[in-house]
C-alpha cells in the first residue's frame, strides 16, 4: 500500500504527517487544502533531508497489510462460528450460543485493542518505509 502525506512537524527523529485522502479527487485543485487531508500520524524515521512542508511517500509491506486484514476482518468471523460451535458442544440453548459467540467476539476485540495500544506504534515504525516524494 502506498500513500502520500505532507510533513507538518519534525521533532528529533519523529515526524508528524498529514495524509492525503486516498481517492481520485485528493490531488485536484477544486477544493481547499484542508479538504484534501484525511488524518495525522506520527512516525519515527531518519529525518535527514526532510523539512516541514515536504511531501513524502510511504509504503507498507503487503504481507503486513494482509496479516492486519486477516486479524481484524477474517479471524473474528471464524471466532464467531467457533464460539457458537463450542457453546453447542456444552449444550447451551440457541440464544445462549449466540450470546456466547458475541461474548467471545467482544473479548477478542478488547484483546486486539490492548495489543494495539502496546505494540501499535512499534509495528508502524517497523513496517512503514518513508521516502521523500516528488
Automatic annotation (TrEMBL):
Protein name according to UniProt: RseC/MucC-like positive regulator of sigma(E)
Entry keywords, A to Z: Membrane, Transmembrane, Transmembrane helix
Membrane spanning residue stretches: 70-90, 96-115
A Pfam family this chain is assigned to: RseC_MucC
InterPro entries linked: RseC (IPR026268), SigmaE_reg_RseC_MucC (IPR007359)
Organism (species): Hypnocyclicus thermotrophus
Superkingdom of origin organism: Bacteria
